[in-house]
Amino acid sequence: MGPNSAVAAAGRVPPAAPAGGAASPAAAILGRVFVLYAIPLGLVAGRMIGGRLEGLQRVAIRWGPLALAALVVQILLFSPLAAGVPDVAARAIYVASTAAVLVAVAANLRLAGVPLVAAGAAANLAAIVANGGAMPADPGALATAGIALGGPSNSIVSADPLLRPLTDIFALPAVVPLANVFSVGDVLIGFGIAIAIAAAMRRGAERHP
User: Fold this and answer.
1) Among positive and negative, which fits the CA dihedral 118, 197, 145, 25?
2) I need a surface site. Which of 8, 15, 37, 204 has the fewest CB within 10 A?
3) Under 8 Å CB-to-CB from 20, ≥6 apart: which residues?
4) β-sheet bridge partners, residue 135
5) Tens digit of pLDDT for each residue in 126-152?
6) How far apart are CA 122 and CA 107, in angstroms?
7) Which candidate, 9, 6, 5, 29, places its Cα nearest to that of 17?
8) How far is CA 101 from CA 60, 105, 111, in A?
C-alpha cells in the first residue's frame, strides 16, 4: 500500500479535488467518472450516423428512479451531513448503493450499449467490495491528474490493492477539463453510454426518415 493507505483504511478518505480547491460531494462522485465525456461523444456519434435527438426521448429506461436514488444516497453519504456515520456503516451503504445502480443497469440490458455499462459497473463493484467498500486510487494516477485530498470520499489511496487491474490506476492529465483518476470499468461504462446514446438517436431517425 502507498504511504497514505494506513490512514485511508481507518476511515473515509478525502475526495479527489483539484489542487488548491475542494470538490463538492456531487463533484466528488460525478467528477471522478470520466465517462461524463461519453455524453457529448455519444451525441456527436449519433449525429454522424444520421441520428436525431428525438430518439433519446423515446428511450424507455427501466428502474431509473432506483439508480437516481442510489446516486442521491452517495452524494449525501460523502457530504458533511454524514460526518457522524461510522466508517463501517458508510462503506456498507456505499457498496449497497453501488449494487443498486448495477441492478438498475441490468434491468436495461436490452438497450444497445448497456451490456458494456453493466460490465463496467460490475468490474467497479468487484474492486470496491474486494477492498473493503472503497475504490482504491493509485498514487501515481492521482499525481498525474493533479489531485489533492480533503473531506470524506468513496476512495482510498493504495499502490497495491486487491484486484488492482480493476481499480483507479489510470488518469486524465491535470490539464484536461474534469481531470481525474479512472478504472477500466469506467472506460467500459463510458463507451457503453456513448453507444447507447448514438443507437437511440439512430432509432429516432429511422422512425422519422
Assistant:
1) negative
2) 37
3) 148
4) 155
5) 999 999 999 999 999 989 988 865 566
6) 14
7) 29
8) 17, 6, 16
Q: Provide the residue type at 79 as one letter.
A: S
- C-alpha cell recorded at residue 4: 497514505
pLDDT in tens, 44-92: 999 999 999 999 998 999 999 999 999 999 888 888 888 888 989 999 9
In contact, 15 and 157? CB cutoff 8 Å = no
Q: Where are the alpha helices (DSSP H) in the chain?
A: 5-10, 25-31, 38-48, 54-57, 64-77, 87-106, 114-130, 139-145, 184-207
Mean pLDDT of 150-157: 73
Question: Which residues pair with residue 156 across a beta bridge?
Answer: 136
How confident is the model over 183-209, as a mean pLDDT? 88
Beta bridge partners of residue 132, listed in sequence order: none
Rounded CA-CA distance 78/170 in Å is: 23
pLDDT at res. 87: 87
Query: Which band of pLDDT confidence, cut at 50, 70 and 90, is reported for residue 177?
Result: confident
> Within a 10 A sphere around the Cβ of 109, how many other Cβ atoms?
11
